[in-house]
Design a protein that fits this description.
This protein is of the alpha/beta class. It is built from 14 helices and 17 strands. The chain has helices at 15-26, 49-61, 67-83, 91-102, 107-126, 133-136, 147-159, 186-196, 230-238, 249-255, 311-321, 342-360, 387-397, 423-436; strands at 3-7, 31-36, 129-130, 138-139, 164-165, 170-173, 178-180, 201-206, 227-229, 259-263, 272-275, 288-301, 326-328, 335-341, 364-377, 404-407, 413-419. The strands form 3 sheets. The protein has an 8-stranded mixed β-sheet with strand order 3-5-2-1-8-10-11-9, with helices on both faces. α1 links the parallel β1 (3-7) and β2 (31-36). The two termini are 42 Å apart. Bound molecules: aspartic acid. Aspartic acid (ASP) binds at residues 9, 37-38, 48, 50, 114, 168-169, 183-186.
Length: 439
């Protein structure tokens, strides 16, 4: 059994957190490959090391004195090293970083040092081999991940290591220049390592006990999802639920490796298991509820629209020409409505309206902004009658008007559109009916 364990910044923010991580790793000998993030916030209002590095490097680029910020960063690592009683010096590494910042080695290089240094500390703490991600995670000339090359380099290198620490978040191009993933990218590193070593499980340790049924900012203490499929996760993430970096899913999904989201501060909790497919019946009809605010709807009305060949295509072309992505498109016989992100639409509003007039000569166009979309997602819906009925009665009882409904033929999710002001109450009402009362 081989497991890869990735720890987020809050799990590695100080020596105390490192000790918890050490106990977790040592309690299971199959946890052989470790991907650390940079130290995160130790308390509310603290600054992540990655953010300090960005600030430090920008100061260097502006030609100002960046040494005090570099000292602050150094202090963060030595606080951990001392707290763990390690005999480790990072003086050479910091001297190199200082020289590289002076030589303006690049923003990505600067940000990557958070993980690089934490990897050094972690390797010393565990007695594992340190593998620099710049040697094994490859980016192509366009700055995109070279997945094949990475897989080859990683599997070749790790085949020779019984135990290893591979820092998250970065890799390098063919020319050796360091490049990072987007923020939160250590999740992606974990996924690439999992695939390369053909892991049985990818454990992703964070500060919550898994993926929650809904947003804890809206519903107090929502339940944890025990198991979720990759498809369900994708639907929920699209609607704004975040625990994992989106790009972390593809490598492991294709290789059939499950991801287990776990809580460093509550290691006995089972967390959420993310799998390709499962016979395991979800506890409730729905797996999760997620929503996002800030949509606008454009309703186009024209008599006999249904018989006009190419009508929809012409309308969609206008959006494409203006670079605005369409999120949903419910339609009636003589109307079609297009949901778009409000911010993106507002920039091009008048061009798009003029374009639609020109393209299809509509009878009427109506605009509505401040809409929210809510996705009710669950593989259990397929075999259950009346899910839509329950959604509508829950919303009706909460005095919420449904502006739109969209159910995919896969019966994996139902999306409802509501007014911005009703957004939170709608989520509360849906959680209540599906999870609390289970009517
Ligand atoms: N340290 C990086 C960030 O703060 C990457 C990561 O934590 O995954 O975004």
């Amino acid at each position: 059994m081989k497991k890869i364990v990735k720890f987020g910044g809050s799990s590695l923010a100080n020596a105390e957190q490192f000790q918890k991580v050490g106990e977790i790793i040592r309690s299971d000998e199959s946890r052989r490959y470790v991907v650390p993030s940079a130290p995160g916030k130790r308390f509310d209002g603290d600054t992540k090391v990655t953010d300090l590095l960005y600030k430090c490097y920008n100061t260097a680029v502006e030609g100002e004195d960046f040494i005090p910020i570099l000292q602050e960063i150094k202090g963060r690592y030595y606080e951990i090293i001392r707290g763990l009683n390690l005999d480790l010096s990072l003086e050479d590494e910091f001297a190199q970083i200082e020289a590289d910042f002076k030589a303006q080695a690049g923003t990505d290089y600067a940000a990557s040092r958070g993980e690089f240094l934490n990897g050094k500390v972690m390797a010393a703490y565990l007695g594992y081999e340190f593998v620099d991600a710049a040697d094994v995670i490859r980016f192509d000339k366009n700055g995109n991940l070279d997945a094949e090359k990475t897989d080859r380099l990683l599997s070749k290198k790790l085949a020779k290591c019984e135990h290893a620490v591979i820092p998250g978040f970065y890799g390098a191009g063919e020319d050796g220049k360091v490049k990072t993933f987007s923020r939160g990218g250590s999740d992606v590193t974990g996924s690439l390592v999992a695939k390369a070593i053909k892991a049985d499980l990818y454990e992703n340790w964070t500060d919550v006990s898994g993926f929650l049924v809904t947003d804890p900012r809206i519903v107090k203490n929502p339940e944890v999802i025990e198991s979720i499929t990759y498809r369900e996760l994708r639907e929920l993430s699209y609607m704004g639920a975040t625990v994992l970096h989106e790009d972390a899913i593809f490598p492991v999904r294709r290789a059939g490796i499950p991801i287990n989201i776990r809580n460093t501060n509550a290691p006995a909790d089972k967390g959420t298991l993310i799998v390709e497919a499962t016979c395991y019946q979800p506890k409730y009809t729905i797996t999760g509820i997620a929503g996002t605010d800030g949509f606008a709807a454009i309703t186009i009305e024209k008599a006999m629209m249904n018989s006009e060949v190419g009508f929809c295509r012409k309308v969609l072309q206008v959006f494409e020409d203006n670079g605005v992505s369409i999120e949903h498109m419910p339609s009636g016989i003589d109307t079609m409505t297009i949901f778009v992100h409000k911010d993106k639409f507002e920039e091009k509003e008048q061009q798009i309206l003029a374009g639609i007039h020109k393209a299809v000569d509509p009878d009427h166009i109506e605009l509505e902004s401040d809409l929210a979309l809510i996705a009710i997602v669950g593989r259990g819906m397929k075999s259950t009658r009346g899910t839509a009925g329950r959604i509508f009665s829950a919303l009706a009882h909460a005095h919420i008007n449904v502006k739109m409904i969209d159910q995919g033929s896969s019966e994996l999710n139902i999306i409802v559109g509501v007014r911005h002001d009703d957004f939170k109450n709608a989520i509360k009402a849906l959680y209540e009916i599906f999870v609390l009362t289970q009517i």
